[in-house]
Amino acid sequence: MSTDAGPGTSRSPASGTRRPHEPATGLRETKKRETRQLISDHATRLFLQQGFEATTLAEIADAARVAKKTVTNYFPRKEDMALDHQDEFVAGLARTVSGREPGESPFAALRRAFLSAVAAQDPVAGFAGPEFIRMIVESPTLSACLRGLHDQREEALAAALAEATGASAGDITPRAAAALLGGVHRVLFQRIQELTLAGRTNPEIAAVLEGEAVRAFDLLAPALADYS
Question: Where is this region: Disordered (predicted)?
Fold first, then answer.
């Protein structure tokens, strides 16, 4: 379900009228966000009810009471309506490296950030609930898309590591480090899915992952703890 609508719009939801200080462009952007949210909400509901593969764009358009062309204008691919946190997911590891504390290694920053995400039971880390996870694993399209997002996340991490270390363009080290770190995140993400589908609650999963994540990262510590 999309979260792109954002807080604090200046339009009154009750009246739908423009306040004196609000420019017309602000109204248009607000309307676009509302339409996008509406389409995403109906799409998610249908995906969960019927399955991703069985749901058509025409059904989504009918449910949202918009034209099919409007749906594709906001969401070029059907999977974009299901995996709407994908930009945050892809950029997350690289952003953690770029925004790490002074003197903190990328390894330490990524470990800290993941443990914080587990404690918060963050949906982007994998705590998406059984219905949503089942929708993904039962869909060949979404499963393939998720694998591609993991790959993109690793590539973005490699670029951030190369920048952080001042590596030359041909240096394979940042790519190798990103593959190791991305691999741990991929395994832990899949572990959350596995436990969710096994019927464990989010607090139970978080308790399990806290220990498993520490052990997983510890495997990489000899090679990467002091990297950069």
Answer: 1-34
